[in-house]
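We keep the chain:
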Amino acid sequence: MWNWVTQLEKLKKESRPASLVTVASVEGSAPREVGAKMIVLEDGIFFGTIGGGNLEHLAIEEARKLLSFGTSTKIRFPLGAKTGQCCGGIVELLFESLHTGPQLYIFGAGHVGQALAKALNESTFTVHLIDEREEWISQAPQGVLGHCADPEIFISQHSFHSSKTYFVVMTHKHDLDETLLKLLLNKPHKYLGLIGSKSKWERFQQRLLARGISENHLESVKCPIGIRSFGKHPSEIAVSIGAEILNIHYYKEQEANE
């Protein structure tokens, strides 16, 4: 039996939306039993099988459509002429769209990074914590996706989705912050925040402009970050930043639905 749980965990770590298709019920003759599963990705790549044939083709197309909206549902498929199958039974499939919510990538697993990851861990966001220091990543809160990796390599190898991607840069080195900022400016995103003071951001802007980054690109950077000064303790800074990110996400989402 294939390990669909492991496959889903791998896709979650890669922030790849997926539809989990499960045979929820069967009436009469059908190609697979109740509980059979298949995972479908946005591009039509799939893992596992719910029986093959035209039923599987229809299920893949439906899964891709639902993924584009991030919705889940149940659909009954009579296995007759309409579906191009001759089993004669009825199969009800459960489509669950997974990993379609907003993704938060925190670069830097120091005290504030840990606090921010903890603050948004059980929110609508899937939280990623990226740092090459294993001793800090090992402290990531349970439920947070910790990536012990060189952040520059992580960025170069990862896929991001524009309308649902939030970046926060807060590493332990100013020069690394600047390098990551330059890389992330070229990646699709809804929010790009840099921890630091106004004077830090002024210095960064001068250096980034000298490195060929346009002023229009720099306008997408938020620095300082946070909705207001809540204090200097890591947990207080994290609450301020987390509130800003949630406000942007829900305000823009509400705007889009009006």
Observations:
- DSSP finds nine helices and eleven strands in the chain.
- The mean pLDDT is 90.
- The first helix runs from residue 4 to 13.
- The two ends are 46 Å apart (CA to CA).
